[in-house]
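Q: Entry one of two.
A:
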Amino acid sequence: MNPGSEPTALDRAVRHPGYHDSAWPVECGGNRRQKARTGRLDAGSGRARVVTRRDERWHVMAIERDPDQWYLTGTRPAFTGPPPHGWVERIDPETLEPRATSPDLPCGDHVWCGAVLAHADGSIHVINGSYLHRLDPDTLEVLAERRLPVDHSHNGLLALADGTLVTKDLRLEGQGPTTITRLRPDTLELVGDPLVLPEGSMGRIAADLVDAATGLEHVYVPGTDHVWRLVVDGDELIVDDWRARYRPSGADGGLAWDACLSDGACWIMDCGDVESVRLIHRAHPNGRFPRPPGRALSWRRPAPWSAPVRLVRIALDDPTDVRAVAVTGHPGGGIIAPPVHIADHDRAVAWDSINGGLCGFDTSEPDRDPEPVWQLEVRPSMQPVVFPDSGELVINDFTPAGRDEIVVVDLVDGTLIDRVDTGSRIANGMFLSAGGHRDVYYCTTTMTARIVWE
């Protein structure tokens, strides 16, 4: 199997050693961020039922520990006024009601979307702002707490094959270097010194266990101009010679969010540091303002550049092999979530959140640029999920009427299989999670939902 290649259905059944034995123990379903789950959705043969739960919190993502044991995490957003905090709930997988709730978790007063994972040692780890917590999986009591070395919001939290945890702070262009921090899962003590990259980094890290027998593992960090690769060497993280420039010098366009590692390539989209993201991260503490920011935090504001969103493919065996294609070609494009590649179907899927347009690309010829093969006039903003066994992609569509709907799309030809109204009027860039019962968990501000096809 090539580094970063899409696993077969049999491979997907072999769990990563850093995580609890689960089909969805971490954001995007795994460290390669392929967002795929074994099994079929078959949305066209059923009718969708939606269960919702509303409150005043920012819901970020849901993960599964044991079968049907789901955890929901987010932040209590307070852009002004009282301090914010993080939280985790163990929820009923059908009603979404909490079965256990963590204490309010300090976040260093930063307002941003964190992450949660189910670790191989059985515990739950959650990151929010500049704090990391280890929680009891049953009661969600705090077992360990660590204030991270850098006083900025952190995005993304992954477990490596040896069980250690890795995260980083979020830095926009011109805000200095980003810091990668590695920690022990039990005590949350630092493993070695934090690694400081010479560039800032906005997108979340991805990782690839290249060789389980030798323990060779790579960590990919999307910087402001390059995608960097780190090598896990014992207790050290070493900057590899592999480094790919995705932003041409002097180019008009924005930064990359997360990477998807699939079929021997790193897949990203640029144009991600839209005005609302810049506003949040130019404030310190991040996301805290003297007056309510109101519509200034909308991702629908015009992009601060004239370039279109690009889908970028970088070969994992040759960082100079960088191929970029415009997604829709609309000028002033922008996104708040990364793309996905599905090797089983030779498809990459990318979009433009500001202008609208969801596009599928044929990637069957790796020596050629990805070729556009279908486009739908929908406006996605979220991290999607895919069911390769049935060839379906699930993502949101923020409609002209201001409603956030879920669409199910055929990966190969772009056929719109189903459309489901979530009942939300707020769309953001949060995570969809694939359940094991022809269902998907949905997170946004003030609402979470479960959509199940019966």
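Q: Entry two of two.
A:
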Amino acid sequence: MTVLEVLQSTTGYFQKHHIESPRLNAEHLLAHVLGRKRIELYLEFERKLNESELAPLRDLVKQRGKGKPLQHLLGTVEFCGRTFLCDKRALVPRPETENLVELLLSNFKSEIANGRIVDVGTGSGVIALSLAGELPCAEIVAADISEDSLALASENAERLGLAHRVQFLKSSLLEKVQGTFNLIAANLPYISTQERQNLSREVLYDPDVALFAGAFGDELVRELITQAPLRLRPSGFLALEIGIGQSEALAAALAEKNYRDICTKNDYSGVTRFLFARYG
């Protein structure tokens, strides 16, 4: 079979198995197997593939058809212009979280460029390491309760040449975090345990500890709102990624705890996804 024929048959297979963006998935997997950039496939449509190239592709296609995330099969994910290792140890980074990093850099860069930042629930380290790469003078701590996630984040730090810039810490929220910060950023689990049956196959490959917060979904965010004032410098601020429909209640929770300048921001899809608030 030629490259084009393989792409066409794989796309058809993915369509039958209800894979979103089937052609794009097919291109990513074939480029991965061939050690090419995806765009280079378009210059090789007529090249015939041998069995040593087709066999590993068949295995990856079968796994993707069963719902295993593309990022797990590729082993990497692009995030804010950098390539991160990605596997079952942590949540697959989403575009919404890229949006959060972009909002921080576009709206608050002058406040945090020389300050202290803590990323709570760091997962694979994408927030902490993206900020470290853009803010060379900031002091950054990345905390997570999961040793697996911290191991993955540390590997990403080494891979990106940022290991000297970020301190990784095992902590339940801010429990073991010391000192005060200009920014506390967090993309915590915000899905209700009751929503499990409504999640896609791909999402369920993520660790439960990275997805589910409790019966209501906002329990961990509420606890961080309670803990954060002790760790925020005067006029320091909290930046949160939250679930759909949670903004109104969480904004009220911030007001009850005497935060000020509380505001929400929408993600790329127009969903209210981010909360910002100052304290002191």
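A: Comment on entry two: The longest helix spans residues 51-65. Residues 3-66 form a domain with the Helicase, Ruva Protein; domain 3 fold (CATH 1.10.8.10).
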